[in-house]
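Re: the multi-chain job from yesterday

Posting the exact lines I submitted so nobody has to dig through the queue logs.
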Amino acid sequence: MLILTRRPGERVVIGDEILVTVMGVSGHTVRLGIAAPSGVPIYREEIWLAVKEENRAAAAAAADALPAAPLETPTEDSPEDPPPVDS
Amino acid sequence: MSVTFQSIRFGTVEIEAQDVIEFPFGLIGLGGLRYTLIDRNPGTGFLWLHAVDDPALALPVVSPFQFFSTFSLQIAPEDRERTGIEDATGAQLYVTVRATPNPLDITANLRAPLVIQEGRGYQVINTNEDAPLQAPLFALPAQSRIAS
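And the result, structure tokens for all chains:
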């Protein structure tokens, strides 16, 4: 891994089209500005990892893994025995 | 005109060419540039988003609105710029689903919905605070329990 030391306002250039600017440093927080071509997706790592994991888990489903018939959403307030209705 | 592709789950699948959805950036961590929606479980709300060029790549999806009445999508600014989609009005929305042996454990990923518009699809990050990665499909969400 390439490790660089940068000061606020300084930049790193990745290829010819991606510019990463250190916008500021405050305590343990670094603010980065990223300029990249619109076709380059940019994610916070934890979101990217989590979504990747969900996508992979979803894609692992077998053909028969889904309910074959509609399921009713269980409701908690529906009583087991409906009260008698006065007619 | 029709398009035929192979599926390890469903064998030979034939679809109309117009039903091919281009995903210019693929799905996060999975890739796949062309998908289509297959309805193998009519009436259940579950569809398969199936890659046209990879027989093994398919994900169950549902419409978020069918299962989550309070669902809303706020597209992250970087995704708005990348996809050119400002908001999802007029687009088809789907969320990926984790299938489980017990249907009551099935969850949907509300954090990264799929936005499909004019034959193109994008997986975007939902910046709405109330959009979990694993939202139970068949349980009442906590908010509606309180509200009702």
